[in-house]
Structures are given as structure tokens and as C-alpha cells.
Amino acid sequence: MANERGVSAVLPDVKLDVKLEVKPERESAIQPQANPGSNQPANNETYEAIHEKSTLFYDLYERKSELKHQTHYCPGCGHGVAHKLIAEALQELGVQDRTIFVSPVGCSVFAYYYFDVGNVQVAHGRAPASATGLKRSRPDSIVISYQGDGDLAAIGTAEIVHAANRGEKITVFFVNNGIYGMTGGQLAPTTLVGMKSTTSPWGRRPSNEGFPLHMAELLATLEAPAYIERVALSDNKNIMKARRAIRKALEIQRDGAGFSFVEILSPCPTIWGKDPVEARRWVLDKMMPTFPLNVFRDRRPEMPAGNQPPQRPVADVLGITPKPAAHDASKPTQAHRFRDVKVKIAGFGGQGVLLLGQLLIEMGMREGLEVSWLPSYGPEMRSGSAHCHVCLSKERIGSPLISHPDVLVAMNEYSLRKFAHEVVSGGIILYNGASLPADFSAPEVQVVCIPAAEIADKLGSTKATNIVMMGALLEETECLAPGTALSVLEDKVKKLDLLEIDRKALAAGRLFIDEQAHIGAVSQPDGFA
Ligand SMILES: Cc1ncc(C[n+]2csc(CCOP(=O)(O)OP(=O)(O)O)c2C)c(N)n1
Ligand code: SF4
């Protein structure tokens, strides 16, 4: 899969081709070497160890700033080992191109920097819910929910229990390091009795903070899960067991057998205040007595067949009569010349910024296009800044987020200045203003000034400013048919007097581009456009 993010970092070549031949019966118990630094063991057997980076990882780990040569994990962190085991299993199973990795909130939030698979990063604790949606909509994919103990066992308790109880055919890797790592060491539901954290400075007391939650055991009380195992990244032997469990969990998903869950006891040297070797030892000595390793479930669940939901239109099921469609969505009303158009509309609350985006996607749907609309606004309803991203595409849309729009509709000067630099070279800025600010320039894009507020005002309401801009957008880009715009307005605008103004505003915006913009109303200082 192509790696398309902007900032890249070069990881030094980490392929170590150290050969270490291992006799099969000794595979999980390589003996210490007699001569440290040499590959020759004490008994002079020859070993071949092959350390290489899984091809499932990106060649380059894209990081910001100066930390270009390393992952973002602390030395000795279990997340790195868990990532490696998962990557190797996915590689061995040959499912890279249909894997979707759901990253949580926590230290592993940036897992998408490493895994060259489909990646989604979700809200704290919600990974099993998002994974459910992904798996149900793309049943052939391998969906992994990767979560820490704060994420899964605290804020996300409900999501994991219900996903497991529904027997969602996803795989959950639960990295239990007994603490909130990312936020500096608060008590987690899995913190051991007596263990100190920033929020239990005297050590965890069951009388005050309750007992540690045993998630594997808890989920094993449910009917639906197919596979539940707890493993530990404490020593080589247990890491090999973890490797097998991780692979098995993924195989279960590949075979469509049901919900699989692997709890991975994992060192967090930084927050535990230990060096990496001590931290591993601590997993073995301190965590494992509280969280014993075990296979808690390994069977194919019996799911009663049940009635199929009615395969009828929603309106039919709800007993409502849908309005006769004014269009046939399956047939594009316009032969679009573009493959996709990305529009960012920005201004302040009250200018109809979000509504303009909604109108465009409604039009796109009516013309048989794939569409997305992503709003962004502050807590203020009016006067705060607001923007939205609109994608119109002939193909499925990968992400509704637009980093580089083809068209920026800047409803005010602030938005113009803030977002102009994002527009692709050769793109268009439509600016709601009679002329550009004197010190503004955007040499590589076409800037069109439209006194939309004035035009709308003359028509009877400044509320129609966004519709003037819509008319200008349609005329300048020809991305959607004006006839579709009219039919959308007629359906959406309930007040007849406002609809009349909107009709005129749409026409005025188009006319402005046709008759005035090309004869001097464009105020780009260099005369471009
Ligand atoms: C809704 C919400 N609440 C709280 C936070 C703060 N927060 C970020 S990470 C985290 C805990 C992460 O701990 P864990 O899941 O154990 O992962 P680790 O960092 O140890 O790998 C919390 C509480 C947040 N980002 N979002
Ligand atoms: S704080 Fe702990 S869990 Fe987070 S990266 Fe460091 S060692 Fe890993």
C-alpha cells in the first residue's frame, strides 16, 4: 500500500542478517552465549538468527521533528514487541491488503505510523464499536482492535463487553500494562493491589479503588466469544506463546469463526520506573500471579439462526409514504468531467457555511456521485469560526478529511488567510468580498472575488450570501448542474419568500462569474484568472 503522508522519516536499515541455526527441540529456549557478542553458544553449536523487519511495516516510519530514527515508544515498551508479533502473523497469513487496524487512544495511538494496512484511529475506548462497523460493512476484511487497559477496561468497558457478547467477528489485542501510560501513570482498572500510581499514591487499596479487573476472565463468562487467551511479554518463552496466540486469534477471524481476544501482559518500563530488563521480570513476578496465563475459551460458538430482518425499504418498514423522487439517484443527471472534487467552505457561524456543504452533497447524491461532508466548528453557534469539507467523487471516498482542497470557498477574510495555503496548486479560491486584502497573495491559485454579501443584501436577505457563493462555485467549476441545485433548494427551503431569494441568489452568483468575473472583478494582483 502506498504511504501518502507528507512528513517522512528515514529509519536506519534495521535488517540484521545474523544467522543463528536453532535445533527444533530447542527453539524456545536458546541458551545464553559463552562469549557475549558472538553468535557461538557455549556448546559450539551453530545458530542462525534472522532478525528482520516484517514487510508489513512501512519502510519509513513517518515521524515529526528530530526523532526520525526511532519509533515513538520508550525503550523496552511492550507495544513494540506486540506490534512485531502482530505484523509477523499478518504477513504469514497473507492478509495485509485486507487488514484494517483500529488504533486506540493511549501510547499506541500512533500505530498507524507503522502498520502498512488500512488504518483508523478512533475515540478513547470506542475501538470495538468502530471495529464492529468496519467488519460488518466489509466482512472480508481482517479487523483488529488494538487497545490499552485504560482504553479497553476503563472508558471502553461497555464497548468491549457488548462487542464480545455479540460475537463480532473481530480480533481484539488488549495490551495490559497495569497503568495509564500515555497520560503519565494514573491508576488503571488493571493496576495491581498495592501498586502505586499518580492517582493511588499510597498503592491500590481494594477498599478504595476496587480490585483489578480481569478482562479475559470477565469476557469468558459470555456465550459468544470464540477464543480468549492471556499471554505475557515477560521472557522469550512467553513471547513465543504470545506469538502463537496472536496468530491463532487472527486465524479465527480469517476463518470467520467469531470473536477473538488476546490479553497481552506488557512492560511499561517508563511509568513503572524500571529498566527494560527489570520491567520484563516484573511482568513475570508481579503481574502473572494476579493475571494468570491461560486459554479461557477456544471453541466455535453456536449462534442460533434467528429470523432475518425484513428486506424492505426503510420507509416501508416505518409505514411512511416517501415523497416521489424527483430524480433517479442511480443515473447521473450530468456526465461529470472530473474524477473527484474536494471543496473546503470556511467562514463564521451564521454564514451558512455548513448548510452550503450539505446542499452540495445532497446535489452530489442526486447526481449519482459518492459524497462526504465533514463539519468542524467550535462551541459557539454564531460568530465562531466554522468550516466543512465536501468531497464529490465518482469513486468511493477514502476519507472525508481534506488536507488540500481543489476549491476553497472563503466566506470571510480570516478564512481566506487561514486556509489559502492549503489549496492545491492550480486550484480555485472563491472569496466573499469585492476585492482581496492589499497584502494578500496566492500566486499558484486562481482567486475570484465575489461581493456575495452585497449581492444577497440587494436581493433582500444577506442570509442568501452562501447561495450566491454556491452559484459562483457551480458556474466556475461546473462540478454540479444548476438544475440539481434548484431542485435541492426547492426541497430544502420551506419558506417561500426565502426560496425566491435563494433562486435569485443562485442565478446572481452564476451570472457574476459569467459576466463580471472575467472582465475585471477578479482582483488577484498578478492578474491571474
Ligand atoms: C475522552 C478522553 N478521556 C481521557 C483522555 C486522556 N487519555 C489519553 S490516553 C489515556 C489512557 C491510556 O492508557 P492505556 O489505555 O492504558 O494505554 P497506554 O498509554 O498505557 O498504552 C487517557 C485517559 C482522552 N484522550 N480522551
Ligand atoms: S509510557 Fe509505557 S506504554 Fe507508553 S510508550 Fe512508554 S513504556 Fe510504552
Q: How is this fold's topology laid out?
A:
Blueprint: H1 78-93, E1 99-103, E2 118-121, H2 127-137, E3 142-148, H3 149-155, H4 157-166, E4 171-176, H5 206-209, H6 215-219, E5 227-232, H7 236-254, E6 260-265, H8 269-272, H9 276-290, E7 294-298, H10 314-318, E8 340-348, H11 353-366, E9 370-377, E10 385-393, E11 407-410, H12 413-419, E12 428-432, E13 446-450, H13 452-459, H14 465-477, H15 482-492, H16 496-516
Parallel strand pairs: 1-2, 1-3, 3-4, 4-6, 5-6, 8-11, 11-12, 12-13
Antiparallel strand pairs: 5-7, 8-10, 9-10
The protein binds thiamine diphosphate and iron/sulfur cluster.
Q: How would you describe this protein?
A:
The chain has 529 residues and is an alpha/beta fold. The chain contains 16 helices and 13 strands. It has helices at 78-93, 127-137, 149-155, 157-166, 206-209, 215-219, 236-254, 269-272, 276-290, 314-318, 353-366, 413-419, 452-459, 465-477, 482-492, 496-516, and strands at residues 99-103, 118-121, 142-148, 171-176, 227-232, 260-265, 294-298, 340-348, 370-377, 385-393, 407-410, 428-432, 446-450. Strand 11 (407-410), helix 12 (413-419) and strand 12 (428-432) form a beta-alpha-beta unit. Helix 11 crosses helix 15 (482-492) and helix 15 (482-492) packs antiparallel against helix 16. The longest helix has 21 residues, at 496-516. The chain is elongated, with a radius of gyration of 29 Å. Residues 1-41 and 518-529 have low confidence and may be disordered. Bound molecules: thiamine diphosphate and iron/sulfur cluster.
